[in-house]
Amino acid sequence: MAGNQPRMLNWSERYKIIEGTARGVLYLHEYSRLKVIHRDLKPSNILLDENMNPKISDFGMARIVEIDQDRGKTKRIVGTYGYMSPEYAMFGQFSEKSDVFSFGVMVLEIITGKRNINHHESHYITYGLMNDVWRQWKDEKLMSILDPNLKGSYSHDEVIKCIQIGLLCVQENQDIRPTMTRVVSYLDGHTFELPSPQEPTFLLRDKMDQKTDAQYISINKMSVSTFCPR
């Protein structure tokens, strides 16, 4: 698709990316011969083929862990602002649930067409998108956060479900985030009643390694090129 002009993704394409990415993360966590925690899930690491099938890429920060290992810890925190879970950004703790958090951020970005970070300054990171989504969730005005480029061509029920899944995945307490098995079940419609999310965290103290090459990923215009077609 090199040389093609970027175009906006419609809702069915976005939903396909959400669903396919969820299955990809589930495979890494549960079905791969070696259990893998990616640690850097973000839109630029999701490759798309011509049929909009997503494939997770860039395993440079991934950790292979024992099948029965629940979580790990590192002193050198590297990654991308806006997609790191609070426990990883603050304390270097990573697990399947830190990947779940990153997935949840991507879901909310795909729905809104906006990035998660508003600003990063003086050792603090503000997660502005989650703040906006949570406020509209509480006010029951969820359609107001939908990317206006969708222009009515979407499934209302699927949008609401995906927003709820996104909020559940970005819960501050990792123990109440769903597993990717549960997320896929939600997306497949096998679980009809989703739990109610709690308020996510909007402000983090930055303890990240300042030598990292982490970059802000802007998806103000959600296009095919955002997800790096191959």
Count of distinct structural domains = 1
**Overall mean pLDDT score?**
81
Parts with pLDDT < 50 across at least 5 consecutive residues: 206-225
Oligomer: single chain
Q: How many E strands?
A: 9
Order of adjacent strands in the largest pleated sheet: 7-8-9
Please give the count of helices. 6
CATH architecture term: Orthogonal Bundle
Please state roughly what percent of the residues sit in beta strands, choosing from under 5%, 5-15%, 15-25%, 25-35%, 35-45% or over 45%: 5-15%
Q: Taking Cα atoms only, what radius of gyration do you get, to the nearest Å?
A: 17 Å
Which CATH top level class fits? Mainly Alpha
Tell me the span between the first and last alpha carbons: 7 Å
As a percent range, the share of helical residues equals 25-40%
Main beta sheet, described? Answer: 3 strands, antiparallel
Task: Describe the global form.
Answer: globular
The run of helices and strands is HEEEEEHEHEEHHHE
Give the helix/strand class.
alpha+beta
CATH homologous superfamily assignment: Transferase(Phosphotransferase) domain 1
| CATH topology label | Transferase(Phosphotransferase), domain 1
Protein name: Cysteine-rich receptor-like protein kinase 5
InterPro entries: Kinase-like_dom_sf (IPR011009), Prot_kinase_dom (IPR000719), Ser/Thr_kinase_AS (IPR008271)
Organism: Mucuna pruriens (Velvet bean)
Subcellular location: Membrane
